[in-house]
Every structure is written in structure tokens, then in C-alpha cells.
Amino acid sequence: xxxxxxxxxxxxxxxxxxxxxxxxxxxxxxFVSDWGPGPAVEAAFEEVCGCDLKFVGAGxxxxxxxxxxxxxxxxxxxxxxxxxTNLTAAAAETGLFAPHSVSAEYDLxxxxxxxxxxxxxxxxxxxxxxxxxxxxxxxxSLGESDLSIVIQDPRSSTPGLGLLMWVKAAYGDEAPAIWExxxxxxxxxxxxxxxxxxxxxxxxxxxxxxxxxxxxxHLIAEEDASKTAAAFEEGHYMQIEVAGKLASTDQPExxxxxxxxxxxxxxxxxxxxxxxxxxxxxxxxxxxxxxETLITPETALLVPAAEAPALREEALAEWLGALSQ
Amino acid sequence: xxxxxxxxxxxxxxxxAALVAAIILGAVAAVFWRAxxxxxLGPADWAAIRFTVFQAILSxxxxxxxxxxxxxxxxxxxxxxxxxxxxxxxxxxxxxxIVAVFGLLAVxxxxxxxxxxxxxxxxxxxxxxxxxxxxxxxxxxxxxxATRLILQGWGDVPAEQFRLAAQLGFSASHTRRVIEWPxxxxxxxxxxxxxxxxxxxxxxxxxxxxxxxxxxxxxxxIYQAFWLEFDLGRAALxxxxxxxxxxxxxxxxxxxxxxxxxxxxxxRTVMRWDASALSLRFWDAGLIAxxxxxxxxxxxxxxxxxxxxxxxxxxxVWRAAGVSIIVALASTAILLxxxxxxxxxxxxAKGAGMEIAGILGLAASPLVIGTGFFVILNPFVNPQDLxxxxxxxxxxxxxxxxALRILVPGAREVARGHGRLAVSLDMSGWPxxxxxxxxxxxxxxxxxxxxxxxxxxxxxxxxxxxxDPQLATLPLQMYRLMAAYQMEAAAGAGLLLLSLSLFLxxxxxxxxxxxxxx
Amino acid sequence: xxxxxxxxxVNGGFRLAADLSITPGxxxxxxxxxxxxxxxxxxxxxxxxxxxxxxxxxxGEEITALPPGKRPVAMLFQDGNLFPHLTIRxxxxxxxxxxxxxNDGDWAQVDQALTRVGLADxxxxxxxxxxxxxxxxxxxxxxxxxxxxxxILDEPFSALGPALKVEMLDLVxxxxxxxxxxxxxxxxxxxxxxxxxDEIVLVADGTAHPPEDAQAMLADPPPALKAYLGEG
Lengths: 325, 518, 232
Fold this sequence. Notes:
With about 325 residues, chain A is α/β, with parallel strands linked by helices. Helices cover about 40% and strands about 20% of the residues of chain A.
């Protein structure tokens, strides 16, 4: 009965007219979950904005963009948080986003000049493995080894797409040969990150495609130093997660305020131990203890957002060709 | 003519069938309507269609081939706990996919129990990933269903036939030729087609265990079109192909096995004189033991891996469990509102049109249905407000084909057995439903309700577009735990999910049987 | 001689005691109140119910533990005497060989039996295409082919009309006179007994009583039978 009453309460809550202005932020599901940054961010922003911040979770980054495209200018969203650089070109093309007014000193390995989207965190893709494994130092030796890896499908998952772009950015026209080398190492391909990481923890593979920051979770949250990420000589592909203001917003000032808040210490200090990514602007207090143990790639790889869609199509065809044999 | 001879008009069922068809086809149409680009299918899509059909054929064939001897063993043996075993062996069918996959991997994975045992005798670990892994998982899911349906076929053979066979001194092989083969020839094609239809829409299983993009199914191609390329036209087109594939299989199934169902006679065992030889007893006992091992070991793995985390599950998981139970109960209510009228209408009808409408829910891609609902509802309401309603509705539609398989044969019996008497007593409408139809159908309705509630508990539904963060269902909460690296808590949530699914099934099923008019 | 030597027949929770013998070639009606155990008795003899105590003997040989098909018994049931998906000819042929691997001589024998029961032209039909009386005759053809020395009929004609029933009873009399088979027929109709039976076994109060002369018993029924027949 309690749950029924609870459900009814929540369902009818949206019908109540809010006195305070409301800012609606669409984001991906794990951001808004109780274990993600969502709850802490909401509390911190509501302290300063005199508003009601409402997070709406919708699948992952790509599902988020799909939802915005479906809703079009009718969307209730004021801000979309959680697209990455693979999606920003397509997102900008929809014409649904408005330029931002945020200025910040980003701690990104690259220069950030986009005037539509504001970065809030970033990370490097990497293969995570148990510390006692002699890990290869590049894709070629991984392909020659008999190590097993689990990866995600680029057609349904952000890290999977990231790996595709990583190999393409590092090897260009040689990418198909790299994938052919990797084909017999790939144990299986999963729908999303969670399944793949779960398989790895169950011992189904020696390595899993994840982030350089993944070992930080085990170290900080579980005091387990047994996981580490393999540093690759080619460099590591970056994922930069961004937010943008919708042109159709009825709260443009509040949206700008949120985006500015997003690159402030209050928001950024929440990110490392909830989203397990690097903050876009390192907070004054620095990174949490444990992050210094993570590998720091020599080279940061990133395909410019504008070139991403065309390159993605080519890389996907190569990937399918190499792994379908 | 049927309407005159029967005490309830088939009108309500026709309305329900039309409603189901409108909801599903309307959703697909809405996606088409919203599509900008009209790109056709590429070679990769055709490859996905071929693989989908191929793996579904293999999965259905192996499920049925293995189910026949197991069902026969159950049909001709009576032992303590047989009924309980038959029920528990049905559990994989209602398991959430992700829970089941991890259970299977704990047994058959590279680091699984079987590989460990093989390691003791110096053999390499099992290679589970690949087409055979997909088939293994589908057999795990569908062997229980196939066994139950085929066992039903044995149950439908009149006891007199086995008595007559004994009279004539039939051996086991004579019984096979004269009684069992003809029964199987009637039953098996339908069972095969139902499982084929289920395997057509498989996605996560095929992907996780498939070992790579070779194992691309139509559902994954839909995902790609929607997620990666936002090509709604192609997503809808692929969805239509999926509906046609599964629909054709379902139509064949219904044509081949018009009177066969899931419900009655499961507990009835016929004394069998042809199978009393000691060797046959050992054979049957061995088969039952093997099937039980195959189906129960992965479930044991789920229990073992989740048990430790069960005690200190986060509060959100319990709340999600509450939400899921509400959704499951709502799904069950919607299902009964659709399936019960449908069942009495189908029982009076000659054609299979209404029952095919019932199959649509199984055949349609949840992603496309969800998108369609979103396109339709978004201009009028905030989809998030309807998250639970839509999830409950979609889960009910998915369970509808199974519910009809359970209810329709019973409704036919009631119509045949009591229809004319009721008409002659001038009994019709509600009094007839209340005093005759519903009491006679009680056991089957309980079974159908239990199956729906359990399936609904485990289904992720259409939450991608309709997710409401405050009202996450248990499967979604389990995914969230995994996304937050909390694999142990996720395993605990998986065990909770398994337990609640089984409990709901048991509660409805037992409730239906208690006090059921025999 | 068919001997039930101090046997107890178990049918679920019901137990029936019998200590009697029946002379070969006799036609015996099994009578008694509803639920007294008439069917239990004949099913025990046919091997469908367990006999935990006592011995069942035929011509001095013990058959207590033999499976139904190995006993010297052919049986006509109330219903379910024919497989609906097989033809009449195949159904009758099953009486000869359960695997239906019949040679020309066997088939000739089947056809002869069909002719004998008046179904010579209907062998290719399935049971559903026949009338009730024709179905009974088809089952008879099967029993004839089985050629067992004991024939048990468990109310086989109760669904037939009066004229048809008389016709079938006469057929039983005629056919068993030819073969010399021993007949045990469960019936609740004294006219059936009068028409066909030499002797009557009375089943009442959990006991099957030894057979007694039919005419005498019907003329002067013992109390249990009298109560059942309802005569004043």
C-alpha cells in the first residue's frame, strides 16, 4: 500500500504548479541514479539558484539525443547534459541548441573552442585488467597475444563506438588490419558497458574496454588495488562529455546559470568519485587521493566533432568486415 | 451462428483484439510517420535478417528435440515431488535476460563451474561464445516452455488409449509408433513455431553470447538504426520485417495446433504399462536429472552470487522492487482485461484472426513500440508521467500470446461443454460469466496471471524513452547498480528479482488452483 | 479354470476381496450396486489394478504379476476401444501385432474378422466416420483377432440403444460360442444378464462372491442383489 500511495503521489506531483522556477535537465540514466552525481548536483545547485532542478534520465547519451530529436522544439528540456564529442556534430546539426556564454579554464588535454556545448568531464578509453597480468603496450601486440578481451558493440554503446574511433584515429587506413589482428582476441561483444565490465569481473576475459579511471573506483570505493589500465603507445582516445542549452528553453538565464555552475568547483568536485571521470575543470582541492595512481597517456587522441560522423561510418564498416569473418 | 448458440457475445473479444492490433500497429505507423529519411535496407540488414532466422531455427529445433524425451520421461513417471519439479523447471522461462545470462556464464563460461571441472581432468575451458552459445541460452530459456507444451500433448492423449495399448501388449516402441508419434506430429510444429517467434526478437542474449558482429540480429539492427543513425524509417521497416517473420511462424503454429494449450492436465499422469522395463526407468530418471541439472545449476549460481548481497541491499533496490510489483500487478490486470474476453471470443470463432492479433505483442520490437508510443503521446502529455502505465501495458501485450495459449483451450471446453445448457437456462452475460465461465476457468486464469506477473517483473520494457528516475523498476535499478560498478549489489538485486518473479507466479497459480472448479 | 485365490485388488484407496473360480467357456455377468467394485474386479483380472495379496491363476498358471498385454485376456472398454487416427482395418490389425507389421495371411485374418462383424466394406474408414454400433463392431473385430481365451466386457454397450444392444449381445453370444471363450461382462441391467449369462458374480460390500447360476439368482435374488435391483 505504501508504494501505491507513493506512486500516486509522484504521478500527481507534476500536476502541481511550481511556485519556484523549474529547470529541466535531460541526462543519461546513470548520471541521475542514486549512485551517480545527480542527487549531489541537484542539492548543490538548488542551494544557489532559488529554483527547482529536475533531472530526467533517458537511457544513455545516444538515446538522449534521439529523445531530443523526437521532441524537437516542443521539448520540456532546458539543458541536455551527457552528449559526447561523437554526438555533438549531429546534435548541433538539429538546430535545437543555442550558443552558450560560459567561460572557464578547462583542464582538458585539448583546446576547447565549441560555442554550443560546454564540457563537464572527460576520460580516456583503456583496456582494464588485473594488475598481475603482463599487459601489451599497443594494439598490435594485443592482437598478436592470446589475451582475451571483451568489448562493447559500437552500434549500441558509447565505449564501443569510442574504441572504433580510437583504432581509426591511431591507425587510419591500417585500422582494418588492426581489427583483423584483434578478431581472435575478442571473446564477445556486449550491448553496453555494464555487461562487458560484469563479464570481466566474472573472469570471462583478461581485459575489458573501459576507462583509465575505472581502477580508481576499485581503489577508492573498494580499497582494491588489483585492477589497472594498460597504457598504449599509440595514445588513448578521449571521451569528452558535454552539456548544451536548448534554443527552445523558457528559462534561458537559469540554463546559462546552470552551465556556468557546471564548470564551478561545487559541481566539478562531485564528478570524480560519482561519475568516475576526470573533471573538466580541476577543483581547487585537486583530484581525490588515488587518482594519482592512474596511468596518464602520453598522447590524447580525438577526432574533431565535425569529422566524427563520416569517419564513424567508415570505421563501422571496417569493424563489421573484420569481425564478421 | 456462434453468437446465437453461446451465452456471451464475442463482441468484447473483438474489441480487445482490435485494441491490441491498433496499439501495436499504430505505434509502428507512428514511427514511420515521424521518419524523415526513407533509406532502404542495406546488405548488413539482410545479413542480420538471415542470422536472426538461422539462429531462431536452430534454437527452436534444439529446444524441441531436447524437450521431447524430457517431456516423455515426465509423462510416464510418477514420483514424489514431480509437480514441484515441473514448476521449478519452468523458472528459466520467466527469468530476466541479464540475470539468466550471468547465471549461464557462471556454469558454462570460460571461468564457469563446467570449465573448472574440465580443468581438473586437464581439458581446456568451454568455449561458450558463438552461435552455439546463443543456441544454448535460447534452449535454456525455452526448454521449459517446450517441455510444458509437449507434456501437455501427452496429457491430452486419453488415458483409454494407454489402457488399450496395455491390453494389446504394446511395448514402448509400439506405443511410440501408434500413440506418441501421431501426438507429436500434431503438437511439435506448433511448439517449434512459438519458440521460433520468441527467438526472433532476441537481442541481448544473441549479442552477449554471440561472440561478435556475426551474431547481429534484427533487433540489434533496429537499435543501430535508432541509436546510432537516428534513421526511424529503417528502424520501423526492420520492425515490420520482424513482425512478419514472427507472425508467419505464429500463424503456422496456430494452424498446425488449433486445440492445444498450456493449461490443464499437467498434474495428471497416466499409469503406463509399456514403460515399466528397468532400463527405461533408468533412462527416464537420467533424462529428468540431466534436464534438472541443466536448468537448475544456472539458477543455483544466481542464488549463490546474490545471496551475500541480499542482506544489505540499498534502499533504492527495495523501493524499485515495490515499483516493479505494482507494474507487474497492473500488467496482470490489463492482461486479464484483454485476454479473458479474447479467450471466449476465440473459443466461439472459426478463424485464427483474433489469435494472431494476440501474437503481435511478442513479435514487435519493444524499442520501436516504445518510440511509437512516445511519438503519439508526447504532444499531449509528458511521457514520463505515463512511464509505469506504458511499461505495464507493453508487458501485458508481450505476455498476451502465452496467456491466450493457456486460456483458449479451456474456454473452448467450457463453450462446448456448457454453452448450450446455459442458453437453454436463459443464462447469459454476467450471470453466465460469474457462475459458469469464470469458476470453470479459474485455474487457467491463475496460471496466465502468474506467468504475466512474472514476465512483467523481469522485463525492462520500454523504459529507455519513458524512464522516470524516481520510479525505476527493479531490472532498471539492477542495470544502474552495474553501471555504478556495484556488481555485487546488482547480483543481490538479480536474486531478489528472481525470487519475486517466482513468488508472484506461484501466488497467482496456486490461488487460481485453490477452489478451482474441477 | 480362472481362479482368484484369496486376492485383494487395490484401486486407489478402494480394496476388493475375491476368492472364487470360473469355469472355462462360461459366460458370467458381474453385477452389484454402483461403486461396489465391479470394474475393479475385472480390471484386476485384466492387470490394470494391483493385486498385492493372493494369486490369480489361469489353467493352473499364475498370472498375478503379468502385464495386461501378456495375460490371456482381451477386453472391451466402455469407451476408447479404437485409436481415432487409425483406420478400422489398422485398429483391428493391432490385435494381431502391435507394430502392424502384418503379412498377407495376417491381413486376410483381419479382413475375415471384419467380415464376420459385418464391416467388410468399411475397413478403410476411421472410427469417427462410423456410427456407434459400427464402432462397437469394429472393436469386436479387434477382439476376435486377438483370440484370447478370456473376454472381459466393461459395460461396453451402455451407450447403445435397446435394439442395438440386443443385437450386440447376440453377437457376443454367437462369437464366443464359436471360439469357446470365457466371458466376464460387467452390467447393471438384469436383462443383459438374463440374455447372455450362464452365471452371475455378485459384487457387494467390498467382496466379489463366487458365481451362481444366473436364472436361479435372478428368479430369487439374495438381499444385496434384491436391494440393488429394487424389486419388492
